[in-house]
């Protein structure tokens, strides 16, 4: 509803998690210039603040023993000293999957993945990296490529021509009788390419697994997201086991 200019002001105002009265008045003046009344602005801004607070609350980890807020990677409550385990019930992967559900437009999917917030917890970081690494891998093999589909027509056609040439050079009534087969193979290849090339190229551009095609088109987006999450993981995860896991995931992505 708001223009890009107003959205930028709202985004800047919400960096501290709240909108001051002065910031609200600035937004109202900009909205009034676009024909949006003040009451509508108040409703929309309050909704934005409530949504932001819900997201922050969802990211918080709460000690199940005393209710204190825990740091992202803490394994022991600083308030009561009790050991705690991961308490979030909705992982980042499930949240991302919910956002991508029923979104078929590739540009929208790219936007959702690119703008999705980097996870904070150890479990979410590792889970998100594993998903990103898998999606950064090229699907399919040689038989899925256009080159294979091209050869699928040219090679059989060439073989047919060679068999026909073998028949003619051994047929006493043929004008090609007695010629060397090696002389015919090159000619057969040229004729096969000439006659079958047009149809083969048309066929090579068609078909293929749509799911594989879409996956491969999204690889660069997932790879960029992997690198973004990996940067956060390198800063926050320091155990030898975690570092080894990060190294292995990074090798998998760099090798693709």
Structure description:
Strand 1 (61-62) and strand 2 (69-70) form a beta hairpin. The protein is elongated and about 100 Å long. Helix content is 66%, strand content 2%. It has helices at residues 4-13, 21-33, 38-59, 92-100, 106-115, 122-135, 146-169, 181-205, 210-217, 219-236, 240-254; strands spanning 61-62, 69-70. It contains 11 helices and 2 strands; from the N terminus they run αααββαααααααα. The model has no long low-confidence stretch (mean pLDDT 77).
What is the element layout, followed by pairings?
Blueprint: H1 4-13, H2 21-33, H3 38-59, E1 61-62, E2 69-70, H4 92-100, H5 106-115, H6 122-135, H7 146-169, H8 181-205, H9 210-217, H10 219-236, H11 240-254
Antiparallel strand pairs: 1-2
Helix pairs in contact: 1-2, 2-3, 6-10, 6-11, 7-8, 10-11
What is the general shape? elongated
Helical proportion, percent range: 55-70%
Q: Beta-strand level of the residues, as a percent range?
A: under 5%
- The whole-angstrom Rg is 31 Å
Low-confidence stretches: none
Provide the structure class: mainly alpha
- How confident overall, as mean pLDDT? 77
| β-strand number | 2
End-to-end distance: 42 Å
Strand order of the largest sheet: 1-2
| Assembly classification | single chain
Please provide the ordered H/E string of secondary-structure elements: HHHEEHHHHHHHH
Q: Compute the number of helices.
A: 11
């Amino acid at each position: 509803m708001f223009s890009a200019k107003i959205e930028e002001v709202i985004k800047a105002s919400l960096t501290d998690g709240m909108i001051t009265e002065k910031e609200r008045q600035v937004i109202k003046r900009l909205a009034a210039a676009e024909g949006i009344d003040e009451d509508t602005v108040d409703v929309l801004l309050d909704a934005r603040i409530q949504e932001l607070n819900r997201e922050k609350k969802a990211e918080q980890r709460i000690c199940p023993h005393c209710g204190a807020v825990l740091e992202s990677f803490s394994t022991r409550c600083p308030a009561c000293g009790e050991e705690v385990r991961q308490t979030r019930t909705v992982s980042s992967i499930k949240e991302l999957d919910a956002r991508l559900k029923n979104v078929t437009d590739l540009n929208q999917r790219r936007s959702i993945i690119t703008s999705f917030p980097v996870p904070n917890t150890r479990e979410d970081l590792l889970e998100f990296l594993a998903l990103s690494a898998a999606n950064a891998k090229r699907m399919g093999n040689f038989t899925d490529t256009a080159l294979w589909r091209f050869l699928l027509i040219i090679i059989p056609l060439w073989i047919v021509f060679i068999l026909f040439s073998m028949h003619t050079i051994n047929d006493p009534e043929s004008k090609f009788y007695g010629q060397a087969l090696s002389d015919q193979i090159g000619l057969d290849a040229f004729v096969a390419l000439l006659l079958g090339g047009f149809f083969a190229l048309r066929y090579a551009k068609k078909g293929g697994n749509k799911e594989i095609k879409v996956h491969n088109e999204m690889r660069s987006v997932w790879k960029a997201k992997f690198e973004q999450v990996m940067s956060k993981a390198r800063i926050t995860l320091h155990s030898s086991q975690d570092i080894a896991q990060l190294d292995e995931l990074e090798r998998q992505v760099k090798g693709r």
